[in-house]
């Protein structure tokens, strides 16, 4: 099994390189570059003439190597990443890319992680309940809720929730901290403030995930309950609860465990939209700003990072599956 | 009461198990009576869909409900009516006093638990011993069912064993708590012929050493001949003939049984052609009026289409459900056939 | 013997009829399907159903709240024909915000097949008849107006055209591309297959949303709307094609060994002909199933992209574009009705999901 993991990891590296190349290429597709908008800024806000602005923009271009051919730029970027761990410079934020991503990644992972666990736990338990109470009123309600979960656009849900909570319920939303706490050092009060702001994005992002897990769990469990070994277990005189949890669930939960690996990037990108709407200090809004302003190093690094997380996640999922299902282990 | 003047271990009286489906009521078991005596093997034979599996599931109260339901009847065991006791009591009986093994050994065991775990589960549940003792007993059981190197096998997973071995494990699991009755639902149907013979032999010898009764459900007359003491022939949810195995093969009184017997080649009989019963079992949603066999029976006439025949006792130990069994006797004496030739060479 | 005859006939119900009967059983699927058909009619005949020209601004009437239809007037009299009240503008003395006062004396009755703004349907028909409107002089903004005074209902109806059809074409394109690639991959096997498999894996390596956003950002906003439309269609399809590719590849692989393909090859038919003739009809049900899954996803994707400004650009309208106005919490707070297009997205996607569930069940019933 170790060899399997090593083999998979090695295969991933050329793939990641290719991914980064394509990502970088896509980002340089729009006409112009960051300096184009910088130039516009100079003329409109700083009052420079077109000629002056153009000169300044070209200077900046040279300074940052934006005037070099695409492949050269790409090569330099990758070289810096591999040798110095330097992901480039973010023009929009005037910081190194690492600094931008680093400062925001923490909150991204926090929200994504929380949503992930909640959506798995809630989804699995509701799914089990639904399957064991098939066709009951609760089951129908959950099914309808699940449909809702995959039918509502995330940004709209975020908008709508924001509206309800701000105007109908009069609670402050948006951001992760109230004004007083943004710059404040960490304290219990700050944590509590964070929690008060967190639960809304977590619910919004977790909703779709829970809906999906619930449907999968319900369907898997119903399939498993129809299998022969469940009847064998009952014939031994086991309690129904034991049969369901010990025998059925352990088998039915396999696909969910498998999907847990690929779930993380899904959640990071899932919370992206909600963060943009709610204006949270996470990686989502940073990526969006990078795209809109052609801040290519930031955008490219972010895409690569997501791909890396996906690969690692899949690997972890494979390991988890082998742990849960002995048949895979012995292959 | 049987010839040895024993009390029946299990007495099934007028059992009716119906399924309420969207398309209508399926009367899978529609008035079944039989007894199983201690230490004997009762064979239950019939085509698929005749209700034999549902009968066994009803005894274990494992019928899916909804849509199934035990409508009526009694199942007397150990002085109690199993159809009426609470579920908690029934659980104490399952796997303990009455055990069951199923047809598909490939899917009858949970793939994520070791073979040992699954055997130990029943032992710990019913005998209330600790894990160490349970493990010892499990290994002991594996040995009894003829699995070599049981100390190793006990920690293996089902997918590491062959079909025949898995069925042995199933038997080990079923017998681990020393049941009085083992219900075997087509236990050898999915196995190779040579393995079949081994498993049947195993079951027979275990029956002796454990002193238990077996309810052997099958569609295979060869298996019936091999292991049964007495036989119940089922058709369309009812028992149509009920006697000891020798009498059944020598002197079948029901046209259906007669057809079954003569549709398989026998080494000791020389026939030019085999007989085969035309048609197929009627859909349970659409049983005919009168005797359920009237759609295929060559002797069916008049009353057979109007009224269902009762299970009649012909001579003390041989029950038949047919209006015209006496006529069949006559035909047999004359050496005639009742089914059309199907052109099968000998 | 009538019962027997009926049973005989039942046995020979064609496959199509069986599918239709199964679909009818699925109640939610029927409801979804009906709504989908209604929506299609709405979007195809958009101008007929829209009381107002969706492009025409009316600065005076900006941000008018939704006007309900009333059956009972101020004095409690019931009128069979519903009506709207006249609306007068005023200004709130404290906040300087524009207010709209209802004038109960002015009543404008609802009328059907009214003459209104002129339009061209499919480039052939010219007309000015609309399904409904109110009497001369009155206004009827069922969902209110936006910041330029444009009737939101009309904009939603026209927006449905883009939202629905962009998703449909994206789905179709991805189905075609996916099937072709999957088919080629499965048919040729060997190195070609392995290469394509790697490509598919790579695509699935990429998280969809950021990829979609990046690709959409690559489309210059200065392009003419029709090109942007096509560009978005291509982007959307790039995300979804891998689904069908895998399925079709599996089907083709399983058919490769079948006799009739070998027979066709023996006749000297070339590769492509063989694949097309024998395998594609068998893929139909798979394609339909996948499309019922991808169309709603693409509607969601397009509206998200357009909302973020990366997709469809104004003056072309899609539901996502309509929601761009709702990006500011203050604006939403003061004029919550601008969120209504979001509800339409939701209902449409939900209906298609129900419909799709029914179709999938009918084509391949799983025992539940």
What do these coordinates show?
The complex is a heterotrimer of chains A (331), B (346) and C (368). Chain A is mainly alpha-helical. Chain A contains 14 helices and 2 strands. Chain A has a domain of 193 residues: MetI-like fold, CATH 1.10.3720.10. In chain A, 79% of the residues lie in helices and 1% in strands. The radius of gyration of chain A is 25 Å and the shape is globular. The relative contact order of chain A is 0.14. In chain B, the strands form 2 sheets. Chain B has an 8-stranded mixed β-sheet with strand order 6-7-8-3-9-10-12-11, with helices on both faces. By secondary structure, chain C is α+β, with helices and mostly antiparallel strands. Chain C folds into 2 domains: 74 residues, no CATH class; 209 residues, MetI-like fold. In chain C, helix 5 packs antiparallel against helix 6. Classes of the chains: A mainly alpha (331), B alpha/beta (346), C alpha+beta (368). Chains A and C meet through helix 1, helix 6, helix 7, helix 11 and helix 12 of A and helix 6, helix 7, helix 10, helix 12 and helix 13 of C. Chain C: It is a multi-pass membrane protein. Chain C: One of its GO terms (biological process) is transmembrane transport. Chain C: Belongs to the binding-protein-dependent transport system permease family. Chain C: It comes from Halanaerobium saccharolyticum.
Percent helix of chain B: 25-40%
Strand order of the largest sheet of chain B: 6-7-8-3-9-10-12-11
State mean pLDDT of chain B (0 to 100 scale): 86
Strand content of chain B: 15-25%
Rounded to an integer, what's the Rg of chain C over CA atoms? 26 Å
Low-confidence stretches of chain B: 342-346
Mean pLDDT of chain C: 79
Number of strands of chain B: 12
Which homologous superfamily in CATH is the superfamily of the largest domain in chain C?
MetI-like
Q: How many domains, in number, for the residues of chain C?
A: 2
What's the order of the H and E elements of chain C?
HHHHEEEEHHHHHHHHH
Give me the CATH architecture of the largest domain in chain C, please. Answer: Orthogonal Bundle
Largest sheet of chain B: 8 strands, mixed
Strand count of chain C: 4
Count of helix runs of chain B: 11
Shape of chain C: elongated
Uncertain segments of chain C: none
Helix content of chain C: 55-70%
Q: Rg of chain B, please?
A: 21 Å
